[in-house]
């Protein structure tokens, strides 16, 4: 913890770099990814403060849209699209994902009931090779399911129909740093 504290102490010693941020934000991209500490959106994309609007959830899960029972995740997505006017949404899964791995393997999650119940939103349940520690197939299938889930949000469907929004499916390899994107024409993940 101490190195983090030390950096936080010196971070604010460059106010001229941050003054413009007080005027507001206008990110062009909503980046939905996992809470995993090895996944750092700004590091992966090179984004500076104000350039990415981030949503981090266990397993980069996009919950079903239900306006009568809003979730924090749905509110974040709605704000990004309707208020900030993002033009792109990236759903980025990653190798070695504990959440997707637990689903692919069928792990017993009774000791972590909140995690277990949250992961029920990952429908359909991702499939993949349980013996593969990267769970690449499972994660990639899961990312595509989350992109499909986003299409069920009415405000996203509307923006897609008006060509005002683009959805992207990415897969980040924590062990190599490589980023792959889904190519719809070949239905495969390829290097960016």
Write the layout of secondary structure elements.
Layout: H1 2-11, H2 15-18, E1 29-34, H3 41-45, E2 52-57, H4 72-83, E3 88-94, H5 98-105, H6 113-119, H7 136-151, H8 154-161, E4 166-172, E5 179-183, E6 188-191
Parallel strand pairs: 1-2, 1-3, 3-4
Antiparallel strand pairs: 4-5, 5-6
Q: Assign an overall shape.
A: globular
Indicate the structural class: alpha/beta
Strand order of the largest sheet: 2-1-3-4-5-6
User: What order do the helices and strands follow?
Assistant: HHEHEHEHHHHEEE
Query: Compute the gyration radius: what is it?
Result: 18 Å
> Which stretches are low in confidence, meaning pLDDT under 50 for 5 or more residues running?
none
């Amino acid at each position: 913890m101490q190195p983090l504290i030390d950096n936080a102490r010196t971070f604010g010693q460059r106010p001229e770099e941050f003054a413009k941020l007080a005027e507001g934000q206008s990110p062009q991209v909503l980046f939905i990814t996992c809470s995993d500490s090895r996944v750092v959106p700004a590091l992966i994309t090179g984004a500076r403060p104000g350039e990415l609007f981030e949503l981090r959830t266990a397993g980069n899960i996009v919950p079903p849209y239900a306006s009568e029972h809003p979730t924090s995740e749905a509110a974040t997505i709605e704000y990004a699209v309707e208020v900030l006017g993002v033009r792109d949404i990236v759903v980025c899964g990653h190798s070695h994902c504990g959440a997707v791995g637990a689903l692919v393997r069928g792990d017993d999650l009774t000791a972590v009931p909140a995690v277990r119940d949250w992961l029920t939103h990952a429908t359909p349940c991702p499939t993949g090779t349980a013996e593969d520690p990267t769970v690449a197939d499972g994660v990639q299938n899961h990312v595509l399911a989350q992109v499909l889930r986003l299409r069920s949000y009415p405000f996203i469907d509307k923006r897609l129909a008006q060509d005002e929004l683009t959805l992207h499916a990415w897969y980040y390899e924590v062990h190599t740093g490589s980023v792959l994107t889904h190519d719809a024409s070949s239905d495969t993940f390829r290097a960016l």
